[in-house]
From TrEMBL:
Protein name from the UniProt record: Protein-lysine N-methyltransferase EEF2KMT
GO cellular component: protein-containing complex
Keyword annotations of the record: Transferase
Domain FAM86 N-terminal intervals: 3-91
Family: Belongs to the class I-like SAM-binding methyltransferase superfamily. EEF2KMT family.
Molecular-function GO terms, alphabetical: transferase activity
Record has Signal as a keyword: no
Listed Pfam families: FAM86, Methyltransf_16
InterPro entries the record matches: FAM86_N (IPR029426), Methyltransf_16 (IPR019410), SAM-dependent_MTases_sf (IPR029063)
Length: 314
């Protein structure tokens, strides 16, 4: 039963919105038709979880989650827990006071990464105020392959609000991590998220820069001098692929440097254009074997690809 409870906790804390995904957890036979004891265990790891008390997910999400639980208990015809009923009515009566809300990613029993996020896909003209699925996929790959970043200078393009970088800082021992993004709103939220998760004493050098792919200069590239470049869900707009590949070309100065780019495949045409531009710019790429996806709660319909990109040997 603990496995399915762990999944429910991860879904809830990370604000997984897919209703079928949530209902299918509740309907798992291990949960014994949601008897009273199970209902109370679910409450304890979700709404009453200390992580939720300290860094609450959006109120609208908490209401939605309890509605799903309520529906499932009703469907099974099980007896309601008084505690569940009380919690549900209390939350329904609470109005949203515009509090900041959080999404928390439980990595293991020792580490949960909590990020302030926006729930809408495009806010203030950027897609960067929420965590995208490819960032989770890439973060999981990095946790499983930490030596690629050990004592390396890592630069992230389009870093958004920081999941990938915070994971690498916590699990992969980089020498320096350079977050970059074009959007000032994104960089502001990123700063708060670094503050929430990284204690001053534990961090290596962390930098944050506003950086447009089309504007990177050779002087800037030399000042960053990265060993590894990362990007999660940054190949999504056919019109910016040219500048992204040019940015990689300028930034990959060191002979041994490489880039890792993870994408959710939505439109094969965009992906094909990216690969064609890489070839024209003199890069080769390897598709990295997909890994077991067990650390994060993923949207089951997402289809990921992770490339390692290198300069053609001279
Ligand atoms: C889909 S979001 C992905 C964010 C994050 N990597 C993640 O996966 O959660 C794309 C990010 O790239 C940034 N971005 C888009 N075009 C850019 C450009 N031309 N130069 C720099 N950053 C850009 C956006 O501001 C946004 O934060």
């Amino acid at each position: 039963m603990w496995r399915i409870l762990d999944q429910i906790e991860k879904n809830f804390l990370s604000v997984t919105k897919n209703k079928n995904q949530i209902l299918s957890c509740f309907e798992n036979p291990a949960l014994q038709k949601l008897n009273i004891d199970v209902q109370e265990r679910i409450l304890k790891i979700t709404i009453k979880n200390p992580i939720c008390t300290q860094h609450a997910p959006p109120l609208s999400y908490q209401k939605f989650f309890l509605r799903c639980l309520h529906e499932s208990v009703e469907k099974f015809g099980s007896e309601y827990s008084d505690e569940l009923m009380k919690t549900y009515t209390d939350i329904l009566a609470t109005t949203d006071d515009g509090r900041i809300s959080y999404h928390s990613y439980k990595i293991d029993s020792f580490c949960t990464i909590t990020l302030q996020e926006e729930s809408c896909i495009v806010v203030k003209n950027t897609t960067g105020l929420q965590t995208w699925e490819a960032a989770k996929y890439m973060s999981e790959w990095c946790i499983r392959n930490p030596l690629n970043f050990d004592r390396q200078i890592v630069l992230e393009l389009g870093s958004g609000i920081g999941l990938l970088g915070i994971v690498i800082l916590k699990f992969c021992n980089p020498l320096k991590y350079i977050f970059t993004d074009k959007s000032p709103e994104v960089l502001k939220l990123l700063s708060s998220n670094i503050e929430i998760n990284i204690h001053k004493l534990e961090n290596p050098v962390i930098e944050q820069h506003q950086l447009f792919w089309s504007d990177i200069t050779e002087k800037e590239a030399h000042s960053f001098y990265p060993d590894v470049i990362l990007g999660a869900d940054i190949v999504f707009d056919i019109d910016t692929i040219g500048s992204l590949v040019l940015a990689l070309k300028i930034l990959l100065i060191k002979e041994s440097a490489c880039a890792y780019i993870a994408s959710t495949i939505r439109n094969p045409e965009t992906n094909n254009k990216f690969l064609a531009e890489l070839g024209t710019a003199g890069f080769i790429y390897i598709i990295l074997k997909s890994h077991e996806k067990s650390i994060f709660a993923y949207d089951k319909s997402s289809n990921f690809i992770l490339y390692k990109i290198l300069k053609l040997p001279k």
